[in-house]
Amino acid sequence: MSGALEVLLARLYSSVLETERFLKDRAAYARAAGLPEEHLQDVLGIDAATLRFTVQSFEYKRRRTARRPAQGTGEPTQST
Questions:
Q1: Are 51 and 6 in contact (CB under 8 A)?
Q2: Which residues contact residue 29 at a Cβ distance below 8 angstroms, ignoring those fewer than 6 apart?
Q3: DSSP 22-41
Q4: Residue 44 lies in a domain
Q5: Is residue 68 domain-resident?
Q6: Is-contact 30 40, C-beta < 8 A?
């Protein structure tokens, strides 16, 4: 997997807003993110429903982790 593809996927997985921008015009978004043409077909084939589900799942996990107290301190953990 190329570095540009990894960066693109990380952006998509970390933001519902970025995911929706991507889904409006996948090819333009991918090119603007610096994705090489050789990987363009890979991202064009991503199923929208599966991507949305994945992003929402990651968001839920991030929120849940941010609310969980740090072990032994009784204080909430800070997400980075």
A1: no
A2: 21, 22
A3: HHHSHHHHHHHTT--GGGHH
A4: yes
A5: no
A6: yes
Once rounded to an integer, what is the mean pLDDT over residues 26-52?
94
Range of the domain at 15: 3-58
Q: Is the dihedral of CA 47, 49, 51, 57 positive or negative?
A: negative
List all residues 6 or more positions away from 79 whose beta carbon is below 8 Å from its beta carbon.
62, 65, 66
Number of domains in the chain: 1
Confidence (pLDDT) at 50: 96
**Residue 46 CA from chain centroid, whole number:** 13
pTM reported for the whole predicted model: 0.73
In a domain, 63, yes or no: no
pLDDT tens profile 63-79: 888 776 666 655 565 55
**Which pLDDT does position 66 carry in this prediction?**
76
Task: Evaluate whether residue 64 is within a structural domain.
Answer: no
